[in-house]
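Long-time lurker, first post. I've been practising inverse folding by hand and with some scripts of my own, and I keep getting stuck on stretches where the structure tokens seem ambiguous. Below is the full token string for one chain I'm working on. Before anyone asks, I'm not after the true native sequence, just a reasonable design that respects the backbone. If someone could post their per-position residues I'd love to compare against what I wrote down in my notebook.
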């Protein structure tokens, strides 16, 4: 009873601290992708009609923010919703790992996912990456349980993961690998598919009614990353993946992989299945690690094939990496427990120091301000437009248009769709009066456009009287726009 109580207290403290570092600081200013989901949430809850991206973005994260806004109409509620959702990944990691590898491994996995600096950073951002990982872990845990209800719920969680981030579709390979290693799970896979289909049906029907296609945003999102953004070399991911996981996690991962390979070699020498009967639990653990390893490698290869690359897109790799590293940590702990007291004490002290060095930085938020009220330059521009425009005005921009739409609340039009033929199409495309925001090329920084020289450029603006400069900001210039007669 005491052990169970101590475990629950430790878990509560871990989840509480993990939640804190994911929620705070509460932020007023948000960047491009974050404001897309915030804007779509306002479309849902307030009926805004000035801008949305449901045609290419999954809806679930925005729906969650909309629910939060309905309860508390404050921008900070998004940080709270994001924190609660992403900290659930820590809990599901523990539940999933504990089922196969035991409580110690589950707690190790929860700790690694709770305080890995990159995991905390991406959990705090108002993006779909870590929420999708949480739902994927939930689906994997439920799929691992016995009984039809859990299998159906696994399908529901899988569908919700897809509706959070489209690349979560790739989790199907994990389910197929599980069935390949354990054929008796075929019934669970069928029920999982039924649960997923039933959960996806309302969204797909809505897409058909609104966009005349069941898969419109899936296809469009694929085209955007394949054809409409600048390609990034594969080396970007090979370099970037090293920064996702701390050095200690890499070390634990390597330790577990060496042990796994050794066990498979030993098993092969003992004529396979005959040896597995001697220790079914150990064999199940080997199969689970192999499943995760194959799935992780396949996912990484798939992401390499996509021209547009961002490091956060690799976040699902946290699932196999954290689980297998937790197994390595458990193995190291078991080895230390068998050693003499001086060596055991030195090993534990070293482990604490390494954990503090690799996972202590998120705790620095405890000493920082709980609220960040600063207004970024993009937000200041949007607020200027809000104050100096009327609801009849349209805001045009080729960059940061979701930020302008969310904070200005004015009708906003992206000029990216006509970049290729801007000189020919701009008159028809820009048919309403309003404002144009020209972002200075030298201040844009990172940009994923296929042709980074965005139009209209300085020369175009200087030679067309339809654009009249009204306000200069450090990163952009605002023009009053009058369409041609």
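-- Answer (accepted) --
I ran through it position by position. Result:
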């Amino acid at each position: 009873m005491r052990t169970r109580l101590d475990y629950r207290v430790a878990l509560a403290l871990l989840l509480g601290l993990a939640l804190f570092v994911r929620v705070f600081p509460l932020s007023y200013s948000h960047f491009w992708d974050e404001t897309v989901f915030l804007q779509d949430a306002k479309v849902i809850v307030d009926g805004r009609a000035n801008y949305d991206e449901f045609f290419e973005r999954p809806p679930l994260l925005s729906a969650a923010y909309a629910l939060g806004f309905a309860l508390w109409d404050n921008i900070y509620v998004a940080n709270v919703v994001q924190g609660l959702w992403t900290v659930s990944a820590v809990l599901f990691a523990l539940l999933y790992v504990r089922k196969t590898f035991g409580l110690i491994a589950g707690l190790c996995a929860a700790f690694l996912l709770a305080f890995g600096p990159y995991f905390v950073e991406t959990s705090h951002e108002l993006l779909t990456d870590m929420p999708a990982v949480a739902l994927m872990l939930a689906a994997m845990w439920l799929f691992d349980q016995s009984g039809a209800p859990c299998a159906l719920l696994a399908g529901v969680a899988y569908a919700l993961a897809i509706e959070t981030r489209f690349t979560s579709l790739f989790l199907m390979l994990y389910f197929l690998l599980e069935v390949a290693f354990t054929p008796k799970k075929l019934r669970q896979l069928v029920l999982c598919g039924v649960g997923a289909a039933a959960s996806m049906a309302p969204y797909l029907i809505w897409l058909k009614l609104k966009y005349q296609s069941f898969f419109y945003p899936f296809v469009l999102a694929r085209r955007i990353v394949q054809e409409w953004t600048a390609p990034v070399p594969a080396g970007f991911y090979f370099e970037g993946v090293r920064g996702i996981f701390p050095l200690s996690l890499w070390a634990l991962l390597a330790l577990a992989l060496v042990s796994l390979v050794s066990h498979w070699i030993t098993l092969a020498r003992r004529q396979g299945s005959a040896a597995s009967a001697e220790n079914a639990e150990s064999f199940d653990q080997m199969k689970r690690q192999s499943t995760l390893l194959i799935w992780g490698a396949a996912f990484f290869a798939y992401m390499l094939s996509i021209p547009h690359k961002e490091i956060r897109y690799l976040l699902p790799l946290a699932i196999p990496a954290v689980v297998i590293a937790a197994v390595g940590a458990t193995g190291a702990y078991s080895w230390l427990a068998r050693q003499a007291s001086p060596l055991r004490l030195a090993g534990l002290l070293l482990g604490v120091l390494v954990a503090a060095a690799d996972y202590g930085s998120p705790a620095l938020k405890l000493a920082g301000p709980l609220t960040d009220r600063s207004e970024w330059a993009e937000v200041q521009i949007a607020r200027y437009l809000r104050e100096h425009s009327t609801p009849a005005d349209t805001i045009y921009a080729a960059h940061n248009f979701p930020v302008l739409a969310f904070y200005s609340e004015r009708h906003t039009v992206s000029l990216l769709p006509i970049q290729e033929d801007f000189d020919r199409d701009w008159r028809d495309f820009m048919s309403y009066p309003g404002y144009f925001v020209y972002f200075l090329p030298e201040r844009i920084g990172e940009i994923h456009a296929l042709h980074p020289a965005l139009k209209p450029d300085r020369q175009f603006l200087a030679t067309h009287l339809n654009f009249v400069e009204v306000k200069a900001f450090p990163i952009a210039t605002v023009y009053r726009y009058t369409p041609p007669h």
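A couple of notes from the structure itself: The beta strands are 26-27, 371-372, 394-397, 411-414, 434-439, 467-472, 476-481. Residues 186-211 form the longest helix (26 residues). Happy to go over any region you disagree with.
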